[in-house]
Automatic annotation (TrEMBL):
The keyword rRNA-binding does not apply. It comes from the Bacteria. It comes from Paenibacillus methanolicus. Gene3D superfamilies: 3.90.1470.20, HAD superfamily/HAD-like. Dephosphorylates 2-hydroxy-3-keto-5-methylthiopentenyl-1-phosphate (HK-MTPenyl-1-P) yielding 1,2-dihydroxy-3-keto-5-methylthiopentene (DHK-MTPene). This is 2-hydroxy-3-keto-5-methylthiopentenyl-1-phosphate phosphatase.
Amino acid sequence: MTSQHEQPEASPSKKQVIFCDFDGTITVNDNIVAIIKHFNPEGWEPIVDDIIAQRKSIAEGVGELFRLLPTSMEREVVDYAINNVRIRDGFQELLDYCARSGTEFYVTSGGIDFFVYPVLARFGIPADHIYCNGSDFGGDRIEITWPHPCDEHCTNNCGMCKTTIMRNFPPETHTRILIGDSVTDFEGAKLADVVFSRSHLTTKCEELGLPHTEYNDFHDIVAALQQKEEIRQ
């Protein structure tokens, strides 16, 4: 654990729910950027810069990135995406903690179905607890689809809107815990009761003055959650 900024204690009367990012969080690498870097289509770098700087919405930018790739490369893209993944240390331990403590666990990912579902298959997470974007290889270029768009409370064109998912778990009844690392997590961090951050998300939390706990791996997160439990008892 690298550092901690005061966060409110979870209420024992509320149910804990975790919303966990996938790319760069469950995985060590950011798979979307890794795919695009690997195949290196002309013009990808300014699009990534615009997404990170929030000059382009996530949906707009990610859609543009994958449109740079022809669908004739489907097999190579899918194989690279799945085989390139490294899972961050302690992920199974976090799932074990959730099962043991009765904490609900959801994957809320700005990633794409063709790599998110295959990578997570071995962990036994129910399909209805995994939210991500879709894909369409039917045309000339890869198209990303958006089955979980923003609700009326969000105008950020997130693609897969994490705050829309989080609003299904009201703060009156749930302690909402967000684990993330990047631009797709910025809005969710504003809603969460507890934030575990690294990379761009840490920078954004510091800019906005949001309480957060930095992590290196999921062992750090499990230790922090267990410590909060002990304090409550």
